[in-house]
Write a structure and sequence with these properties.
- This protein has 277 residues and is α/β, with parallel strands linked by helices.
- It is built from eleven helices and twelve strands.
- It is elongated, with a radius of gyration of 21 Å.
């Protein structure tokens, strides 16, 4: 291990040991992330978002041969925040990355507590609930839409995809760093909220147009929007407690909308009514 100067800062040049590489590659899998309580983030733009939201990594690895000028500036900012930064060989970096076209930088982040009790003080005004959604691209996109449209908390059902899988993290375009996340059943979530001050809104083909449903939520303290799986729809536990159902009208040229698209449209309508934009 040697020190050298990169982008105006001192960094460590190291070759990752077999045990370190094995441990880091285990973060590609749900079991490894659960055991180590860490996840990987890669790419310059994604890691810029981690800085913007002040979610700093435990360690940053980069390849001098793969990283570009923008990446160099990112490394310098990490250095200013005292984040440990290590240069590794191109082969090692590509083993850490999950994408074929690596941008030359991968970081290790701690997974925050996911218990719902840790996320309900103060009580959120808006909650997005993802009901058994298994597609990581949909979940990542919904994280991004939730952050863009002012959702206070996103909760995943226990059967949903791992929110810190590589595909979810990348699909969120860094929104994962700005969106509080919890995992809980709908019953557990509702058990922590005042029933009379809470309404559950669900995306459903049999529902009303968004405007009609959202007009009825003005005086409610907390609104929960549920988006279900494209394959199975809403779970029975959710169906039994839904107050309002919302559908997105479209032509008959398609059978239904992608879960992320439908959820994002409803979130946009919800946001427009809240802020008048």
């Amino acid at each position: 291990m040697v020190k050298f100067v990169y982008a105006g800062m001192q960094v460590l040049m190291s070759s990752l040991s077999q045990s370190t590489m094995k441990r880091l590659r285990q973060l590609h899998m749900a079991k490894g992330r659960a055991n180590q309580k860490q996840f990987l983030g890669e790419g310059v733009r994604l890691l810029e978002e981690s800085l913007r939201h002040l979610w700093l990594p435990r360690q940053v690895y980069f390849s001098d041969a793969l990283i570009n000028e923008r990446g160099g500036a990112l490394l310098k900012r990490f250095g200013e925040k005292q984040v440990p930064t290590s240069a590794v060989g191109t082969r090692d970096l590509r083993k850490l990355a999950e994408t074929d076209q690596s941008q030359g930088v991968v970081a290790v982040f701690d997974i925050p507590p996911l218990e719902i009790e840790r996320r309900l003080s103060p009580i959120p005004k808006s909650i997005l609930y993802l009901d058994a959604i298994a597609d990581p691209g949909n979940v990542g996109t919904l994280f991004r839409s939730a952050l863009a449209f002012g959702v206070d908390l996103t909760v995943l059902s226990p059967g949903a995809v791992d929110p810190f899988s590589g595909k979810v993290v990348r699909s969120s375009a860094g929104a994962i760093f700005g969106m509080p996340v919890a995992i809980a059943s709908i019953e557990t979530l509702l058990g922590h909220l005042e029933h009379d001050a809470c309404r559950v809104l669900a995306a459903d083909l049999d529902g009303a147009e968004p405007g009609d449903a959202l007009d009825r939520l003005e005086a409610v303290r907390t609104v929960i929007l549920v988006v279900g799986s494209e394959a199975t729809g809403l779970s029975q536990s959710v169906r039994s407690i839904v107050d309002l159902r919302v559908r997105i009208g479209h032509t008959d040229q398609v059978e239904s909308l992608n879960a992320a698209v439908a959820g994002s449209i409803i979130l946009r309508e919800w946001y427009r009514r809240k802020v008048g934009k």
